[in-house]
Amino acid sequence: xxxxxxxxxxxxxxxxxxxxxxxxxxxxxxxxxxxxxxxxxxxxxxxxxxxxxxxxxxxxxxxxxxxxxxxxxxxxxxxxxxxxxxxxxxxxxxxxxxxxxxxxxxxxxxxxxxxxxxxxxxxxxxxxxxxxxxxxxxxxxxxxxxxxxxxxxxxxx
Length: 157
Prior knowledge:
The protein is an all-alpha fold and about 160 residues long. The protein has a domain at about 5-110. It contains 5 helices and no strands. Helix 1 packs antiparallel against helix 2 and helix 1 (about 5-40) runs parallel beside helix 4 (about 85-145). The longest helix has about 60 residues, at about 85-145.
């Protein structure tokens, strides 16, 4: 690989990384919104945010699929590309992308915890309602005598 080819390939990779970082920043915003609506238990807004996230993720994956051959070529000729200034810029962009992914994943863990807490609260409320229903059903039996008892009273009186 010539120096000119190496620089051209690094520039192509740099442009793709910048596009991915732009998408990751948008994903970061969506992940934060998902956490907020998860904590607020606003499942309608959560579904809308999930749709937006799916769209952004598909775009990110599309770019990534297009980069696989470029990345492999750069890896094979790493001894050539590391000598160029563009390589340091690309390395910094990769670090930025990795930091964004880590932040998004941390936010996702918080969202999952909020959803798990909401599910636990829902199950607790359901169990409480079921216990209350069982108690009221038993109490109703005490208050309302069976019909056969009323017949016995009628015969005596």
